[in-house]
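Work Package 4 report. The design task specified in the project plan requires that, given a folded chain encoded as structure tokens, an amino acid be chosen for each position. We show below one input record used in the internal validation round.
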């Protein structure tokens, strides 16, 4: 299995603190059946993780994994928080796409969707990049107004749902929205977004079991194949999205 979103690089964000932490995370991942991990450190006002640093850290971690005989491969990626100059920074070698493919992560703020989002995602695509909105299920505005996400996906953006969201570790509302995203073909990837092995761990096995029982085995194949296509820079499978109907909050008798 491939995990495309993980904070496994040591000491550069709020994920693994030390190389020892990174190795423990890799061991845990391996136990869950993960053989390849895209390291996606934060890139935002707090964590200035640029492409050259990420490449260096990925190399270091791969060496340490080989020395420790842990059969997990780390590929370079990044989780940039959305900002206006992201395209310029891509051209300036600051943005690291996922394994150097056209696929690039975009993190929205947790409580809203900036007004310029649609335009920016469009501009990225004009440059040949494919934006993947990470964990849309945890964005408060998208939960309230799922039609916004529908519009972004319709316009070519992809999305990644988080294993632990689907398993209910972020609460019932986020779990339900995650399920709706899958039902509506509004998400294309399942990933861990693991930060450690304590309270933000992988949960990929648990999520895949849940998906299989809730949606059937075809969805497991869909997510796994999409992750494979992604790291190879190939086109992924996109089913036609449908709008999510917002459930009525009150019942009147
Ligand atoms: Fe993340």
């Amino acid at each position: 299995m491939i995990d495309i979103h993980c904070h496994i690089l040591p000491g550069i964000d709020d994920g693994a603190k030390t190389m020892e932490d990174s190795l423990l995370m890799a061991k845990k991942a391996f136990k869950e059946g993960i053989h390849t991990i895209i390291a996606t450190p934060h890139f935002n006002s707090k964590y200035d993780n640029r492409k050259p640093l990420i490449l260096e850290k990925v190399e270091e971690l791969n060496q340490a994994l080989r020395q420790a005989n842990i059969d997990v491969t780390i590929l370079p990626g990044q989780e940039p928080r959305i900002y206006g100059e992201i395209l310029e920074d891509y051209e300036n070698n600051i943005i690291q796409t996922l394994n150097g493919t056209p696929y690039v992560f975009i993190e929205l703020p947790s409580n809203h969707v900036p007004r310029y989002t649609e335009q920016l995602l469009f501009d990225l695509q004009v440059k040949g990049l494919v934006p993947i909105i990470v964990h849309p299920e945890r964005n408060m505005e998208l939960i309230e107004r799922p039609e916004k996400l529908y519009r972004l996906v319709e316009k070519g953006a992809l999305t990644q749902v988080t294993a632990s969201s689907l398993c209910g570790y972020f609460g019932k509302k986020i779990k339900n929205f995650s399920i709706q995203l899958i039902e509506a073909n509004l998400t294309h990837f399942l990933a861990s977004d693991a930060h450690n092995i304590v309270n933000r761990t992988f949960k990929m096995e648990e999520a895949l079991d849940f998906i299989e029982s809730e949606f059937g085995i075809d969805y497991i194949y869909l997510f796994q194949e999409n992750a494979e296509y992604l790291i190879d820079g190939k086109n992924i499978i996109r089913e036609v999205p449908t709008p999510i109907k917002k459930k009525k909050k009150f019942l009147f008798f």
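The first strand starts at residue 2 and ends at 6. Validation will be extended to a larger panel in the next phase.
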